[in-house]
Amino acid sequence: MDAVDQRIIALLVADARASYAEIGARVSLSAPAVKRRVDRLRTVGVIKGFTAVIEPSSLGWTTEAFVELFCTGRTTPAQITVATRRHPEVVGAYTVSGQADALVHLRAADIGHLEQALERLRAEPFVTSTRSMVVLSRLVETATAVPALPDKLL
Q: pLDDT per residue over 39-77, tens digit each?
């Protein structure tokens, strides 16, 4: 992956609906050349897909929390994955270092819904306890973990 690929990725992260011609104009390539690069980046797994980013509150999901899961001694990441995928309120789940075994990101319609989701999560057979932090406001949120390139590079 070269600097042009990185610029193409940054432009797609900023606007996945940009045409190959628009991207090409920004990176000094033809539209077919950009398409070939994007196709290659998809084939090798750098680009995993394209999606719409939805504002959760517009769908009525206005409450969110991060929940530390503390699990029984032999709980595997695979078990946590299977269990958390059963809960529609879970938007992310991660194994972590520190005292907790996993960190789960939940979104819910309101506090009552969040409480129900927490109770269902706590009922998983391997969960021994949880510690929750309700989000007051989102300060920074990006659609991808790739850091944005400075505007001068775009």
A: 999 999 999 988 887 888 888 899 999 999 999 988 999
The span from the CA of 41 to the CA of 38, in Å, is 5
List phi, psi (to 5°) of 71: -120, 165
What Å distances lie between residue 139 and 4, 14, 135, 149, CA to CA? Answer: 30, 18, 10, 19
Q: From the CB of residue 36, how many other CB atoms can be counted at a distance below 10 Å?
A: 13
> What is the mean pLDDT of the segment spanning 9-20?
92
pLDDT digits (tens, 9 = 90+) for 112-131: 999 999 999 999 999 999 99
Beta-bridge mates of residue 134: 65
Q: What are the CA-CA distances from residue 85 to residues 47, 82, 93, 106, 149 (Å)?
A: 23, 5, 9, 11, 33
The pLDDT assigned to 89 comes to 96
**What is the DSSP code (8-state) at residue 152?**
G
Instruction: Please state the three-class secondary structure of 65-85 as a single string.
Output: EEEEEEECCCCCHHHHHHHHH
Strand partners, 68: 103, 131
